[in-house]
Write a structure and sequence with these properties.
It contains six helices and nine strands. The protein has helices at 9-27, 117-127, 136-145, 150-157, 207-217, 283-307; strands at 40-49, 66-74, 89-95, 102-107, 170-179, 185-194, 220-228, 248-260, 277-279. The protein has a nine-stranded antiparallel sheet with strand order 4-3-2-1-8-7-6-5-9.
Length: 310
């Protein structure tokens, strides 16, 4: 029997389907593209740990030098949307290892807009997106009706277009359990913080091209940090920020090496975790996988129709 407030997997799959439907209704159909974060750029990278993660976890991707795949993206489902019209940027990172990959699906905002799948779908319908923009009146109504969305909407209102994908921090939003060799668990949140170096002011060009030029000129690095929760922090609610005084520990450095071809079959499944890292009870965490799978299913159907000329 489900706990109060839980929904079955069948219900979650239905909501995941409806979320993809809502995206297409609000933003139009764009065959071959992801239903969110449609436009992006993919890089080969390398992650080099500094050894500090060993105090908290036995997860191989955080303990050994490893290859990585990194996708930077704009949040809009419409690939023709301008950079400025999509202020939230994404950074999806896959750290490879023999024991299995670690996928960190991150954004330039530290919180999510909902803590339950059905609430997320209701909010999407309520915002009535048009041309990728949130209507202030609709947002105000949601602010009143959905208190959990307030932090996200406040942060979104104060968000500015980053000058580059390479100059802004990215947050994994969800909490994870790090598990050490003794079985001891520590709740953490991950973030990638850009290395502070002197940047030339970017030219007014698409941000994918700007990042590609940066990488061609020299190393572009991000430092992986883990924020440690204490016993009072919510580990299963992605709408709540943890206090700023929680310890931050840098555990390694990610370096972008070269652009690689976009892989439409690539899905950054956040629930695919190596030994030493576990998911919390956050309902949105598992739900994201279902939404991504439905998006991929539609892309495969579209590709099949194109091959057969339908």
């Amino acid at each position: 029997m489900n706990r109060k407030g839980d929904i079955s997997m069948t219900e979650q799959n239905k909501i995941a389907y409806e979320v993809n439907e809502t995206i297409e209704t609000r933003m139009g159909r764009h065959p071959g593209y992801r239903r969110a974060h449609a436009r992006g750029i993919l890089f080969k990278a390398r992650f080099i740990p500094n050894g500090k993660a060993a105090a908290f976890t036995k997860a191989e991707p955080l303990l050994k030098d490893t290859e990585a795949i990194v996708r930077f993206s704009h949040s809009s489902p419409d690939p023709s949307m301008t950079d400025a019209a999509s202020p939230i940027k994404g950074m999806a990172v896959r750290l490879l290892s023999q024991s299995g990959p670690l996928n960190l699906v991150m954004a330039t905002v530290p919180v999510f807009i909902a803590k339950q799948p059905e609430t997320f779908h209701n909010i999407m319908n309520g915002l009535a997106l048009k041309d990728g923009k949130i209507r202030p009146l609709n947002a105000l109504k949601l602010f009143i009706k959905k208190p959990e969305a307030r932090a996200f909407l406040r942060i979104l209102q104060n968000s500015r277009l980053p000058e580059s994908f390479a100059t802004v921090p990215y947050h994994a939003i969800h909490a994870f359990w790090l598990v050490d060799e003794t079985g001891k668990r520590q709740a953490v949140r991950f973030r990638f913080v850009p290395e502070r170096i002197s940047y030339d002011k970017p030219k007014i060009i698409p941000q994918e091209e700007e990042l590609k030029q940066r990488v061609a000129r020299g190393p572009v690095r991000f430092h992986l940090q883990v924020q440690l929760a204490d016993e009072t922090d919510a580990v299963d609610d992605p709408t709540v920020e943890w206090p700023n005084d929680r310890p931050l520990i840098e555990v390694g450095t990610l370096t972008l090496e070269e652009e690689i071809k976009e892989q439409e079959d690539l899905m950054f499944d956040p629930t695919l975790l190596p030994t030493g890292i576990e998911a919390t009870g956050d309902p949105i965490f598992a739900f994201r996988k279902l939404v991504y799978e439905e998006s991929m299913r539609r892309r495969h159907q579209e590709a099949k129709r194109n091959r057969h000329g339908d």
